[in-house]
Amino acid sequence: MDQSYRNMKAHASFDLDKYEPMSVVYQLRGSILRRLREGREVLPEIDGRAETKADVIRALLSGAHPYLVSEEGTGKTRLARSLTGLLPAIPVIAGCPYHDDPKWPRDLLCPRCAASSDPVKDFGIDFVPGSKRFSRIQGNEYTNEAKLLGLKDIQAIAHGKSPQDPEVFTGTGVFKANRGILFVDEMPAIRTKVQVLFHPILEEKKAILEEYNWEHPLDLILVATGNPKGFSHVNEIPRPLLDRLEMIYMELPEEVVEQEIVLKETFRVGRKSGDFSEIEDVVYPSMEEIERTAAAPWWIMEIVTRSVRYSRTCPYVENKASIRATNRSLEHTYASVELENGKAANLRHAYYGLRLALRGRLEPRADIVDFDDPQKAVRTTDSLVADFMWNVIEDIKNDWTFLNGIDWQKLGQELASAVASGIVAKPRLPDGALFNYPALGKAIDTLYKAAPDRINAELISDSERRLYRGEDGLLREESNYSAFETLANVAIHKSAFDAAKAGNLFVAQKYKN
Fold first, then answer.
1. Does the domain spanning 44-87+129-265 belong to CATH 3.40.50.300?
2. Could you read off the pLDDT of 298-325 as tens digits, one per residue?
3. Does residue 344 sit in helix, strand or coil?
4. Closest Cα to residue 129, out of 277, 284, 25?
5. Is the pLDDT of residue 8 over 50?
6. Is the pLDDT of residue 276 over 50?
7. Who contacts 74 (Cβ-Cβ below 8 Å, separation ≥6)?
8. What are the residue ranges spanned by the domains of the chain?
9. In whole angstroms, how far apart are CA 53 and each of 39, 83, 229, 257, 371?
10. Helices 374-399 and 473-493: crossing angle, nearest 10°?
11. DSSP codes, 39-66
12. H or E stretch including 127?
């Protein structure tokens, strides 16, 4: 047994009968939500880079796999390793090289543990702290299948085991990441034919070893890094694999922040080397804690879906986004609400969700991308996302015929007056605040009444049902704001409201090459 894994505090308080296994995705989501609700920094080890950290958190809240893109020396590895601070200690079958859970059914166990009729009795239970739930694969031209998956144990074969026996196989990077974080540094440096091995791991959550006729389930989150396109790329990432990653640009910190980082990490006698703190207790969130309670009003769902669909016909885009992009866009929209401890999605949340989902899934025309400036290249994609939303709203102003009874000029005046009054200074709008704005109140009520015709009531969440039934006051206030913001954008397209008077409202912008 590896004594370095011993965690006596967790060992003393652990009750196997009460314990229930929980996936890495749920553990990360629960830990993030708990910190957000308590007002604590989610990734305190990383200074600055607020936008990057927010996108990483959005991806993890959605159960997605972050792909950190930047030039060298921006802290990608440190950020990836800092995620282990969000993971609790876990019980494992002692001595298991793949961290098998003591309560897993036999079909999830490795060959060594599955060969025992009672592995807990035979081997005992050990504990792996969060800081050890991390496996790194360094990408380069020599990274091969053996470094990703594993190799044969020559000694076992010499002692009579068949080369095709799964017990002869010794897992490496991917298997060591089981029930934790798999960090693939410089993924594009790995040959494409090797990169494809990640596909079943992300799509089917298992490693496929054809030589042994063996498929092993894996529970992990993959965090990959790479340089921007055009910067030291050795191999292209296959589009089916890239479609399963969320591209996040990580820029250098501001000068003041960089100076603080240098001072913190300057060598001094007596200073402890920086390892991330461990969570010793086996404390998992309850299913109620990680349940998604954010709601997306039907108009936000429609704008998200139509924006992705518009990206497939946009003249500035070459490679088109998949259906997975639509799913991820909505998932990240919900996560954007959760990131703010909010309840209802608005247009800004939709923009953040679309931006994160589409950065790696569509490819702008080469003539509008500046590969010599990676940050500018990312911003070009972000501008296109705002353009998709602009074009969708341009269509909506005519498509939403149920709004034809609205006096848009009167509505535009009330929108301007309401913004100037400060009633939407926060992303909330109480019903009572609408009494002085009859045209606005009518328009928002019209949006709610259109819900049965715009959304399948059987497929929406309980939060969204409560929204339409008016059962949650705060949810209603945030949804009112979302409706206000959406109507303001439509009014701008109808020339009834001046964008210059929009204040803090999100306003979709048309792309200008």
1. yes
2. 999 999 999 999 999 999 998 888 899 9
3. strand
4. 277
5. no
6. no
7. 250, 251, 252
8. 44-87+129-265, 298-501
9. 15, 11, 21, 15, 24
10. 90
11. T--S-TTS-S-HHHHHHHHHHHHTT--E
12. strand 125-128
